[in-house]
Amino acid sequence: MTRRKKTRKTGPLAPSKQPKDKRPSEPTTKGKKIGKGQRPGQRHLESQKNTLTHSKSDDEKDPRVGSRRKIELVMTPEQELQQLQNDERLQRLVERFEEGETLNADDQRYLDEKSERYETLISKLGYELDDDWDDEEY
C-alpha cells in the first residue's frame, strides 16, 4: 500500500471557505504583538521597584542573601577557659615541655601565649592555681 501525503485541501465534504475579501475584518495590529506574560527581566525589576519606593532600612534585605542577624563572637571567660583546658595541641605541648624536650619556635610561642592566657583567665575568674597540683581524679 502506498503512502498518501496529507494535503491542506478540504475536500468535498468540508464546508467551503469564504473568499478573503468577503470575510469579516479583524482588527490588525501592525505594531507590537500582544503577547502573554511579562516582559523579560521583570522578576528582577520588581525587587528594584520595591527598593526605590521604600526607604532603605536595616529591616529590608535582599531575599537571595541569608540571615544578617548579628552573632556574638566573643566568648565568656568560662567558655574560653574550658576551651583552653580541652585543647589537645596545648596538652601535647605541655607534656613534651615537662619531659624536657626542646620545642621549635612556633610551638614554643603557641605554648607561651596559651599558658599566659590561661593564667589571666584563672586570675580573672578568681580561681587559685596550686603550684603542686597534679592530674588526680577527685
From TrEMBL:
A Pfam family this chain is assigned to: YihI
Keywords for this protein: GTPase activation, Ribosome biogenesis
Record-level Gene Ontology MF annotations: GTPase activator activity
InterPro entries membership: YihI (IPR007336)
Region (Disordered): 1-71
Any single biological process term in GO: ribosome biogenesis
Biased composition (Basic and acidic residues): 55-71
Entry protein name: Der GTPase-activating protein YihI
Provenance organism: Idiomarina zobellii
